Amino acid sequence: VISLHANFRSLDPLPIHGPEFGSAMDEAETIEVEPESKQQVLENKEVVVQHVHVDGVKRTKDDILAYEIADVFRAKNLIEVMKKSHEARERLLRMGIFRHVDVLIDTAHGEEALPHGLDVIFEVKEMRRLTGSYNTMVGNNEGSMVLGLKLPNLFGRAEKVTFQFSYGTKETSYGLSFFKPQIGNFDRNFSMNFYKVTGQFPWSSIRETDRGVSAEYNIPFWSTQHTLKWEGVWRDLGCLSRTASFAVREESGHSLKSSISHAMAIDSRNSAILPKRGALLKINQELAGYTGGDVSFLKEDFELQLNKELLWDTVLSASLWGGLLIPIGDKGSSIADRFYLGGPTTVRGFSMYSIGPQSEGDYLGGEAYWAGGLHMYTPLPFRPGQGGFGDLFRTHFFLNAGNLCNLNYGEGPRAHLQKLAECIRWSYGAGIVLRLGNIARLELNYCIPMGVQSGDRYVPSFTSAFLLFGGFWSPVA
Amino acid sequence: MASPMELFIWRGDWGLPSVHTDSLTALAYARFAGAPLKVHKLSNPWRSPSGTLPALKTEQGLCLQPLQMLEYFKKQGYNADYRLSVKESADTLAFISLINEKLLPALIYTFWVDAKNYVSLTRPWFANTIPFPLSLYLPNRLHERHLEQLQLRLGSQALNSEEETEAQILDEASECLTLLSQRLASQSFFFGDSPSSLDAVVFGHLAPLLKAKLPNSKLQQHLQLLDNLCGFCNTVLSLYFPTEHTDTVSDTRRSAAPCETDEDPHKRRNQVLSVLVGLVAMLGYAFLSGILSIKRVSARGALPAANRLTEEGDEEE
Amino acid sequence: MSIAHDVLFSQMAAAEPWPENAMLYQPLKGEQILLSDNASCLAVQAFLRICNLSVQVVHRANAEYMSPSGKPPFIHVGNHVVSELGPIVQFAKAKGHSLSEGLDEVQKAEMKAYMELVNNMLLTAELYIQWCDDSTSSKITRSRYGSPYPWPLNHILAYQKQWEIRRKMKAIGWAGKNLEQVYEDVDQCCQALSQRLGNQSYFFNRQPTELDALVFGHLFTILTTQLTNDALSEKVKNYENLVKFCRRVEQNYFEELDHESRLSPTSRSLRDTPPK
């Protein structure tokens, strides 16, 4: 049986994360330096950048442009001018306020023109003041209509307001976000979100409606990206059906979570989907309950991924995830906060989030988990298609393992480790991966689940296909 | 009586003086009690002084709830319940509550929620009955109102699973019908030989269910099995509404002959007004949809723009 | 889960006897529970006690949301979750416990009708007074309803509920009534109940039925709950036989078992409030 899973466990607000430069940037990494000899000639020729023009600017303020193109003046030779202009162009594009940017390099004109002087001209076209989109989506017995509105460059300094509204046959969701980057340092930015999202999670027989406010500050620090966030969410949980287990029924009702969290990421990979080299480390910590609300916990989780290129474009990729949720106070953790494990993003061969504690077939999640994966990707046997269609395909061999359980915090760390090492679920297999643009991948696997515990659900057929979205890679709810 | 009371009700069909439960209840009680009435059988609720049907226009103002109308009739000296003992009055109250809680939701469900019935009976009937431009708007409005009413009666969680809800509503209503049948037993009316307010309420609820040609008729079939209830409805029809199927204006029981009329002194004015309202609504709709289409064009233009951005990014190298 | 599941119940439940660990879930009794919910919960408790079915009462702030019908109380027996009195009566019947077996057809019809009278008039009046009377809702209802939740959720949920109830009142034609008319309805309802009861011990002679449980739940709660004024309880106190009836049920079914769990939310007994 071939099944398609769109993976939306995460109840993140609609995809309204600040800038959308992911797609434009990955390809840029592939520019390789030109042949050595030619470069030598150009490098020797000294030039001075005399003027930089930006043509086509209507609403954008000068100060923000000046920061982005300032580097071009520092170029000392032709190759540097090209390189810096290219970088400046990338920086202008990623602000998301221009539809396109063309670069022209010309000899200097005018009275003060020097013999080795150059003018760099950026021809830009600004985005419309208001852009909109309209989609209809049909999913498993639910249809919805998604309306999106975006005001890029609201005040002329790359501020952005986005609004998404999805009206479904069963649920309505919306999100409103305001994004403001610091002038001259686009990676340092502030954003604010208001949202309502509804989700149905059949593996837990639960439906959840979240209404929330969040404020987020992103700061780059050396090569790491830090995010500080405050979030206040009103959560409404309910049973999906009358047959839901009593354990899930007991979780029904309203709660208010107010939390501060810090996330750190280092990403040196060359691409988010099927990277060839580089590493990723993400650490996330969340402290809830000290800023109001009736939910108190400390939550830590991390993700580590290492990629190494071997012979013949074969890539070895190792990943490790882990997380811990410590409830504070005498109230236990909520089903909405716990971790879930299993499925095509973590331990292949098991059904979506169907590992660990459960009650009458409803998975309740766990307070601690770890998962690891070892993958070998090879372009064979698609090598003949190199440079074209064949580049989209990889064959992979994998070994996944993980465990999810609840810890008794009265016991020491030794007991915890022992518990996490007991009853490990693992699986191995091989399959074909199809890369879909820069956001998703499709897998067709032959997979053998091992270490299945009673209560776990695994995919009965050995063949399965999954659609994964890069943005939802994390196994954490 | 200085001026007779005026009752505004939905017009009849299917051999009934009115197709509408509340209208029927009020009318039936008035007949039982012999209250002199000027009855307006309307096909447009906007012609009622309150904008809704039924409505009772009295010297003291308007009455909109059927039970309030019954109270008013009683105060005016038209009391069909004067023979009842205190215990029978208590029973009346109890059985009216039973009907209100258990039968009414099922009637709303049968006529307004059940897709088959709604599409092939209720909606066409109202769409054909209500005069033109309003017929585009009012049936939907009525539909929404009934859905909302049912949802609120059942509580917030009740419509989670439609099948279960349907089964529950219909089962409870069937039980209610059986209980009424048991209470009626072999009497001609609920409290002996003459009708009272409970009979008016039961008649108002059962007659439409019995006479409507429902394509999906689970509840109707159950009612048809209860001979004494069917007989009761037919007795009331033949005794108190003998001329209904011919729609003629006459009454055999009362000296103060009521004037049943569909005519309205302001008919022409209302027709002109309704046409105007319709025109404005249509123009408004055209205007709104025009705006919408303009927006959608610009939205379509915006999407390829985002793609172009990435494409051109590649070309530059 | 109602009569629709009658057959299902009788098949699945009849085989198992009433278990020891049956639970009754209702809102927190001290600071949260509202008059109307307390009446419904007490009615179910009374029914189970009259049936002599043991049940452990559990107080949960989210009882309303746990209940499959969205209304407290509900029982958790074996694998079954059944909410509200009507379905619980059906469920108990499937297990072989019934209070109305001895009645003839007409009596059963009357019993059901009077139960709906209580639901249709008393319960609705209680909801009206709680949520639609401005002084009661602002002084008592909203703060109690929101009490288990942190700011600002307590206000949001209370106003949300109030809005829902007011819409319901509009849908059933009660929105136009004023407080006096509602008290009149209560009086009318009590009068009907009082007439029906007459000077019998219970509504149908010597043995209490589910109607007695329901009437007791509502009247006892009204008599023992302190609202902004006494207008509501005065209406009930006007009918001496009803007050005596409440006292009788309390004595026969609650006092001897009192060590297990206290009955009224305010821990008041009718002994403290002698009838006029």
From TrEMBL, chain A:
POTRA domain boundaries: 47-127
Localization of this protein: Mitochondrion outer membrane
Keywords: Membrane, Mitochondrion, Mitochondrion outer membrane, Transmembrane, Transmembrane beta strand
Membrane topology: Multi-pass membrane protein
GO biological-process terms attached to the record: mitochondrial respiratory chain complex assembly; protein insertion into mitochondrial outer membrane
Family the UniProt entry places it in: Belongs to the SAM50/omp85 family.
Name the UniProt record assigns to this protein: SAMM50 sorting and assembly machinery component
Organism, as annotated: Callorhinchus milii (Ghost shark)
Automatic annotation (TrEMBL), chain B:
GO biological process: mitochondrion organization; protein transport
Location(s) in or outside the cell: Mitochondrion outer membrane
All residue ranges annotated as the Mitochondrial outer membrane transport complex Sam37/metaxin N-terminal domain in the record: 23-142
GO cellular component: SAM complex
Membrane-crossing residue ranges in chain numbering: 272-294
Keyword vocabulary terms for this entry: Isopeptide bond, Membrane, Mitochondrion, Mitochondrion outer membrane, Protein transport, Transmembrane, Transmembrane helix, Transport, Ubl conjugation
Record Pfam families: GST_C_6 (PF17171), Tom37 (PF10568)
Residue ranges of domain Metaxin glutathione S-transferase in the record: 173-235
SUPFAM superfamilies: GST C-terminal domain-like
InterPro entries in UniProt: Glutathione-S-Trfase_C_sf, Glutathione_S-Trfase, Metaxin1/3, Metaxin_GST, Mito_Protein_Transport_Metaxin, Sam37/metaxin_N
Family membership noted in the UniProt record: Belongs to the metaxin family.
Subunit structure as annotated in this protein's UniProt entry: Interacts with MTX2/metaxin-2. Associates with the mitochondrial contact site and cristae organizing system (MICOS) complex, composed of at least MICOS10/MIC10, CHCHD3/MIC19, CHCHD6/MIC25, APOOL/MIC27, IMMT/MIC60, APOO/MIC23/MIC26 and QIL1/MIC13. This complex was also known under the names MINOS or MitOS complex. The MICOS complex associates with mitochondrial outer membrane proteins SAMM50, MTX1 and MTX2 (together described as components of the mitochondrial outer membrane sorting assembly machinery (SAM) complex) and DNAJC11, mitochondrial inner membrane protein TMEM11 and with HSPA9.
Function: Involved in transport of proteins into the mitochondrion. Essential for embryonic development.
Name of the protein described by the UniProt record: Metaxin
Species for this entry: Callorhinchus milii
Organism lineage: Eukaryota, Metazoa, Chordata, Craniata, Vertebrata
Automatic annotation (TrEMBL), chain C:
Family annotation (Gene3D superfamilies): 1.20.1050.10
Domain Metaxin glutathione S-transferase, chain residue ranges per copy: 187-249
Short name of any one Pfam family annotated for the protein: GST_C_6
Keyword flag Protein transport: yes
Segments forming domain Mitochondrial outer membrane transport complex Sam37/metaxin N-terminal: 41-162
Keywords per UniProt: Acetylation, Membrane, Mitochondrion, Mitochondrion outer membrane, Protein transport, Transport
Cellular-component GO terms for this entry: SAM complex
InterPro entries: Glutathione-S-Trfase_C_sf, Glutathione_S-Trfase, Metaxin_GST, Mito_Protein_Transport_Metaxin, Sam37/metaxin_N
Biological process annotations from GO: mitochondrion organization; protein transport
Compartments where located: Mitochondrion outer membrane
Domain of life: Eukaryota
Entry's family note: Belongs to the metaxin family.
Role summary: Involved in transport of proteins into the mitochondrion.
Quaternary structure annotation from Swiss-Prot or TrEMBL: Interacts with MTX1/metaxin-1. Associates with the mitochondrial contact site and cristae organizing system (MICOS) complex, composed of at least MICOS10/MIC10, CHCHD3/MIC19, CHCHD6/MIC25, APOOL/MIC27, IMMT/MIC60, APOO/MIC23/MIC26 and QIL1/MIC13. This complex was also known under the names MINOS or MitOS complex. The MICOS complex associates with mitochondrial outer membrane proteins SAMM50, MTX1 and MTX2 (together described as components of the mitochondrial outer membrane sorting assembly machinery (SAM) complex) and DNAJC11, mitochondrial inner membrane protein TMEM11 and with HSPA9.
Annotated protein name in UniProt: Metaxin-2
UniProt lineage: Eukaryota, Metazoa, Chordata, Craniata, Vertebrata
Gene, per the UniProt record: Mtx2
